Amino acid sequence: MENYTMEGRTYRYYGQEAPLYPFGYGLSYTTFRYRDLVLSPPVLPVCANLSVSVVLENTGLWDSEEVVQLYLRWEQSSVPVPRWQLVAFRRVAVLAGREAKLSFQVLAEQRAVWAQDWRLEPGTFTLFAGGQQPGQKTRAPSEVLSARFRVTGTARPLGRC
Description:
The chain is mostly beta strands. The protein is built from no helices and eleven strands. It has one domain (32-160): Immunoglobulin-like. Helix content is 0%, strand content 46%. Strand 7 and strand 8 form a beta hairpin.
């Protein structure tokens, strides 16, 4: 085998074609609402981690669990990258009519790209938070919030952070 590219071989690289059963696919017995997605800091150095918080509210009549998923998208990269990449997820039980504020850390190494070695690059990124992948079509309504952040500095090997 000489061609190790993932393009067209895994759903993360299919372009605009969505997978039949993406990560987090399923139904819920209640409804959830996401709000107050906060990225801190919104501009960070190339080797820094990103803090993320989001509020999840159970707007339905039943106590239930939701799998909160965070996805990262590179807006520009020097090498091919996935459309988006899962960087965190957590199963959360929320009582009916209640809400939970969740905090996550997106590590610098989760933004690394492979270019003969793992490298961190500056640029603009979009972070998605919700109960499904961005753009996913489901029978049960679920929303996905998004926010952008910017990484400054010069590209460097991951091992030099």
